[in-house]
Amino acid sequence: MKKIVMTKAWQIARKGFSKFGGKIKDYFAEALRMAWAIVLKGMESKIGFCELPKGINGSCYFVINDDKGIQVSLLSKEKSWRGKEYIKRNPIERYRTGKNKLTGAPIRMYHYAKNCGDIEIRLNDEVIVIENHIDPKWL
């Protein structure tokens, strides 16, 4: 878990550096606080989401608790024939199942490509969105 927190903290620090300038290490202390808050909030959540840092050749993984009624969707921006933009939810049906080594609870592991579109995890009224898109300023 510490590795996940540190990876997330460096990602946040890099975003602060790219947005405001200066040195990355100047942003790290606050980024570490933010990363711990994100991870602890995820642990308290009913959804139980965890992103795995091991990604090879543009792919990533995330694990969620296998709860009844959970829906995972890929979000994409599309245009109607009238030119109006809307968000389309494409359900992700393929995943691997397993058990959490600590709790023994059933889990699902999803595999996705980097920068292919945001991913939405929905359970009843709780929603988590994993940002996974290319910033339009780079296009």
Any overview of this molecule?
With about 140 residues, the protein is an alpha+beta fold. It has two domains: about 1-45, no CATH class; about 50-139, Immunoglobulin-like (Sandwich), CATH 2.60.40. The protein contains two helices and eight strands; from the N terminus they run ααββββββββ. The protein has helices at about 1-20, 25-45; strands spanning about 50, 60-65, 70-80, 85-90, 95-100, 105-115, 120-125, 125-130. The strands form two sheets. Strands 1-2-6-5 form a four-stranded antiparallel sheet. Strands 4-3-7-8 form a four-stranded antiparallel sheet, with no helix packed on it. β5 (about 95-100) and β6 (about 105-115) form a beta hairpin. It is globular, with a radius of gyration of 17 Å. It starts with a helix and ends in a 9-residue tail after the last strand.
Give the topology, please.
Elements: H1 2-20, H2 24-44, E1 50-52, E2 59-65, E3 71-79, E4 85-91, E5 96-99, E6 106-113, E7 119-123, E8 126-130
Antiparallel strand pairs: 1-2, 2-6, 3-4, 3-7, 5-6, 7-8
Summarize the structure.
It holds the Pfam family Phage_Gp111. The protein has 139 residues and is α+β, with helices and mostly antiparallel strands. The chain has helices at residues 2-20, 24-44, and strands at 50-52, 59-65, 71-79, 85-91, 96-99, 106-113, 119-123, 126-130.
